[in-house]
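Help needed: design a sequence for this.
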């Protein structure tokens, strides 16, 4: 079973016999076999006919919609969980302060450890690295603060500080002169490195989200990230451990191995009135006093050619092997995501004591 990506400005998806047929705006056709597909990802203005939807429903193929800006817009899930008792446990655990704190600590601890390992790898490859050494020491001190935290709110502050340390060194791991990274920016990404990071995080997000829903869990009920209307907090919680080993490392490889080229990016004007490239405030970036609310803002995105390159390499990365201690064998990252969601489910059901995120070495 595989994930099929449709990247096209315009097109039409129809049912043809027992298959799906995509006709792009240039007249080319692509056949999709439902029995070989577990997820369909659509980027662009694609019309899906009623019979095609019924075929997707028959094979329970989750259909994910991304905007032209690569942002997650939503999805159609044809098989919802009927396990109300599992969801009841999720809501009940929201009131368990010890569980929320312990789980949040495990999430932040693993994320910071993975980021620290990444930073130390950069440091080992630099001869004159006094500033890198200082930043790594600060990251270690920040990691120690995790154990002292008394709330998820404090841990979110520690995570945020860790992100600033991490991204202050991120550009050091990219060798291409034309790669631009001025610090993390999201809505919109303001340079080519951020364009890749944001897109890879989106791909990772709906992978984790799909695994969560396949186990009958409610992705809106999380414990570390603050609850908000329409926010899939559990998906954000469980994707944190995978950001560095999957997305951050792949981002650097796409540049360093010359898989992406300078002409794989384009500058786009985002506007509050634009449907395809909306300028939005998702609340992910803190707004300080005196901050400016823009009506328009320039951003950088991958071209369709660049998107296809990134998608291909992301799927390839998911097949990389990792030694998974609970199973005592090598498994793919794709399977690892599912196994970690199952592990969380067992913790929630009281079958295992504590959630143990993946930590790279």
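Sure. Designed sequence:
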């Amino acid at each position: 079973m595989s994930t099929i990506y449709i990247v096209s400005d315009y097109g039409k998806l129809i049912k043809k016999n027992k298959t799906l047929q995509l006709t792009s705006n240039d007249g080319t056709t692509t056949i999709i076999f439902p029995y070989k597909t577990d997820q369909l990802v659509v980027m662009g203005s694609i019309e899906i006919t009623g019979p095609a939807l019924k075929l997707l429903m028959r094979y329970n193929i989750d259909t994910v919609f991304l905007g032209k800006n690569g942002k997650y817009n939503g999805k159609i899930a044809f098989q919802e969980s009927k396990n109300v008792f599992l969801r009841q446990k999720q809501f009940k655990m929201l009131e368990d302060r010890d569980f929320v704190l312990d789980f949040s600590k495990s999430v932040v601890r693993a994320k910071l450890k993975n980021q620290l390992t990444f930073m130390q790898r950069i440091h080992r490859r630099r001869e004159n690295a006094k500033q890198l050494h200082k930043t790594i020491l600060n990251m270690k001190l920040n990691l120690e603060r995790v154990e002292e935290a008394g709330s998820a709110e404090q841990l979110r502050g520690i995570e945020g500080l860790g992100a600033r340390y991490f991204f202050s060194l991120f550009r050091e791991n990219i060798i291409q002169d034309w790669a631009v990274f001025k610090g993390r920016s999201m809505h919109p990404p303001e340079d080519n490195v951020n364009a890749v990071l944001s897109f890879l995080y989106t791909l990772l997000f709906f992978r984790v989200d799909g695994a969560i829903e396949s186990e009958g869990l409610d992705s809106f009920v999380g414990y570390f990230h603050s609850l908000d209307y329409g926010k899939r907090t559990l998906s954000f919680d469980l994707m944190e451990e995978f950001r560095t080993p999957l997305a951050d490392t792949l981002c650097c490889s796409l540049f360093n191995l010359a898989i992406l080229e300078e002409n794989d990016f384009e500058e786009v004007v985002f506007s509050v009135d634009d449907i395809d490239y909306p300028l939005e405030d998702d609340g992910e970036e803190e707004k300080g006093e005196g901050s400016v609310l823009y009506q328009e803002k320039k951003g950088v995105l991958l071209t369709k050619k660049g998107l296809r390159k990134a998608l291909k390499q992301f799927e390839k990365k998911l097949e990389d092997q990792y030694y998974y201690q609970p199973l005592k064998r090598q498994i793919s990252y794709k399977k690892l995501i599912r196994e970690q969601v199952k592990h969380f489910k067992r913790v929630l059901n009281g079958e295992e004591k504590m959630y143990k995120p993946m930590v790279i070495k």
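Residues 84-280+292-348 form a domain with the Four Helix Bundle (Hemerythrin (Met), subunit A) fold (CATH 1.20.120.920).
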